[in-house]
From TrEMBL, chains A, B:
One BP term from GO: galactarate catabolic process
Keywords: Lyase
This protein's name: Galactarate dehydratase
Pfam families in UniProt: GD_AH_C (PF20629), GD_AH_second (PF04295)
Family statement drawn from the similarity comment of this UniProt entry: Belongs to the UxaA family.
Organism: Spirosoma profusum
Residue span, SAF domain: 12-82
Lineage: Bacteria, Pseudomonadati, Bacteroidota, Cytophagia, Cytophagales
SMART domains with a match to the protein in the record: SAF (SM00858)
Amino acid sequence: MQTIVIKTTPEDNVAIVANPSGLDRGAVVLNGIVLQEPIPMGHKVALKAFQEGDEVIRYGQVIGFANQLIREGSWINERIISLPQPPNLEDIPYVQRSLPEIEPLEGYTFQGYKNQDGSAGTKNVLGITTSVQCVAGITDFICQKIKRELLPLYPNVDDVVAFNHSYGCGIAIDAPAAIVPIRTIQHIAQNPNFGGEIMIIGLGCEKLRPERLLPADQNSADSSILYLQDEAFEGFGDMVDGIMQLAEKHLQKLNQRKRTTCPASDLVVGMQCGGSDAFSGLTGNPVSGFAADLIVRTGGTVFFSEVTEVRDAIHLLVPRAVDANVAQALKDEMAWYDAYLQQGRADRSANTTPGNKGGGLSNIVEKALGSVVKSGTSPIVDVISPGEKIRKKGLNFVATPASDFVCGTLQLAAGMNMHVFITGRGTPYGLAMVPVLKVSSNSKLANRWHDLIDFDAGPVAFGTKTIEEMGWELFHLILDVASGTKKVATDKLGIHNDLVLFNPGPLT
Amino acid sequence: MQTIVIKTTPEDNVAIVANPSGLDRGAVVLNGIVLQEPIPMGHKVALKAFQEGDEVIRYGQVIGFANQLIREGSWINERIISLPQPPNLEDIPYVQRSLPEIEPLEGYTFQGYKNQDGSAGTKNVLGITTSVQCVAGITDFICQKIKRELLPLYPNVDDVVAFNHSYGCGIAIDAPAAIVPIRTIQHIAQNPNFGGEIMIIGLGCEKLRPERLLPADQNSADSSILYLQDEAFEGFGDMVDGIMQLAEKHLQKLNQRKRTTCPASDLVVGMQCGGSDAFSGLTGNPVSGFAADLIVRTGGTVFFSEVTEVRDAIHLLVPRAVDANVAQALKDEMAWYDAYLQQGRADRSANTTPGNKGGGLSNIVEKALGSVVKSGTSPIVDVISPGEKIRKKGLNFVATPASDFVCGTLQLAAGMNMHVFITGRGTPYGLAMVPVLKVSSNSKLANRWHDLIDFDAGPVAFGTKTIEEMGWELFHLILDVASGTKKVATDKLGIHNDLVLFNPGPLT
Ligand SMILES: [Ca+2]
Ligand SMILES: [Ca+2]
Ligand SMILES: [Ca+2]
Ligand SMILES: [Ca+2]
Ligand SMILES: [Ca+2]
């Protein structure tokens, strides 16, 4: 049997088993290294003998220290390596240097819904935003009714989506951290896929005033906000009628939207991973990173996120900042999150899951080094705090928790119109507001979940395709999905998750 | 025109305007007090002249201090009184005394679904619990499919409800506070309305292991847990089939449940208020408190909750504890919440909403004094920490945030089978798992929201009915709703809100 193990850099003293069913004891890998025990797919084999305290190196970086003698050919897992300290934020100076020239990539387009503010939608969606959780029972009810009764009359509108959330009342609205959920709700309403047709259902007595959710330049609330406590509504029937009438006004406008040819620079692609395995850093993430570079080269926008998965690779990212301010902003977001976790008596090591470990990722350092690969190699032009909206095209670090739905929610607020989600263990993650293009890090998952995975990056592990080849394939698929000519799996199946707000402040 | 203002105790130096359209300047109330300005319904009129610093007294308690000269007949609102300090928890000693004898109330029953563990359901619901947010898109899809295809075949089953939540992964599962959401999910699956037929959908790689959600005495996971990452599932279609088969097993058992005569002592009624106004403490809450006493007299269980609305009345509650341990537990929950709020740089004054103030509640002290009235007068037999399950019958303090859905979720976890929700401003609050009986504090709301309010406690304000009369009416209505012979408004309309977990720990 052919044995396949993968080293990322020449300095690595571990390699990843790529054979789908793992390798048995006695199997010979690389230059005659004999496996001392069976090692599952995705897990690490020791390429040398380790003394206690020796550095374990992957991606050319120290991912841990041997906590016992480890023989060459042994299985290196989370139990026998100890976690290094995270890079000290004070010790990462920024040196302004000439950044690599970005070679422009021209002529790529997609069919999108151009908006007045310059952004472009990839779907044409009536979004119903709410100012408070209390109204969610009614907005859910209304969404069904609109789908049944109104949507068929407006053929150019793809969907109606209620943004139900658990914020708005019963929360400490003057706590310093309250700004995060508030601006998130505000900015989600401005997502390019909603075409500026903001519709807000409020109750009337909530702490979060619906008016705060309107863009600063929109001073009239007349056609956008409806309060259930409005004295004009005599009961539920009236409320339903009122909301249906408001929806119809917005649907009429949305129905006039048509797809037109948009430059690829209108893409705003949020990159995220979830349910990662050791292949994520070898296949899915580098392929997505390559595609990310292509999008940046067209003048488009790419987000990478997930602070706890970036924290241990921050020394590799700071040098990529376009200037000292961006470098400092990167470090500030790390410091904010360090303090946030510490307040809850946790640290970044709380990130890894049983699934990560089962998939071969021993700790957060190994996970982070594989995770940041999906940012590609472009300079980092800006840092966006949780809930803020992007200001610049190019590669942005959008600071978010790694929690899949919280990250997706914050990327939507930042202005994402296309989501690329890399997974190794598999997740049915889907969002109604933007297409979620699911990339598998290994073919085993892609084959099993044939109707849930959109793109299999697995072949890269076996050298049957290159990262470059697959990066281009993914780039083309992104353009097709953005154009509506291809649908992602979760949109075909109609499975979508609720958004989840990040509220670092207290409930009352 | 008849002027109606209400004083709660003889010591009060303010009274509440009860006339639905408020009172005009010049109106004469009580013993010739002349209004200096128009005062809206629910708001306070000064019954004397106040010097700066004078105590403002309602419910016989200091609700604030005049922060300026206030003439007799003036409108006293939140702007002209300052907030007192909350009672110092160290200064409330517990003195064991002979508690009032509870006069047993016998012969009251309802038609419920008796469970093996001794509890009784008020609905017969297939509950689908999840271990992680990732699976929610699929459980939502499945719920619809079960409703369409399976539920009609099992006529004794009322509903299928998915408990989707935002916990399970992307969270610091070893943080000290993680125990709160984990035990909440665990205990919700044991709610009496699910009849012990626990069904858990997991992903496979999440931090929260689905096995942790099973009751301690249930060691077999075979018939309860399904993982989407199970290698036996080749894609979405297989997952759907797998879940439908599991659901059918549980539906077969649930379909054998029949309503039988249960003693009223099987009631577990969660009392809560939301969107309160100044009438809440005069009408809805005392009427609910009277009904609460009746339920306790039958041997049944009543919860009151909402720590921030109890904090300023804690000195009135500690003496009602059955023993020193319960008294200490009450104070411990207050102290825990004080610290939790302080960590987020907020305090209990963050509780009041614009709606409260608009409805005449000037501050959290006034709100709390009105809020605790719904606990009735029974001794407090136990204190339940957030997410825990009750241990004793009688009046329990179930510690929760005041946030409506978070409180409701924690009351469900504690074992509630009937929810009484008092509102003055109006909220469409509804839950699928248990009936939510909505009590209006004023007839104006009850009339306007004729199809959303189940019980109008407004007549108490005008003396056309007494608290006692209406308390008995509410008690009988609770028994009818628990029996399924009357349906609450939100169940008739089919409007239900998602549950919201209390997660005081950090995201990762
Ligand atoms: Ca990730
Ligand atoms: Ca993630
Ligand atoms: Ca939902
Ligand atoms: Ca309340
Ligand atoms: Ca409440």
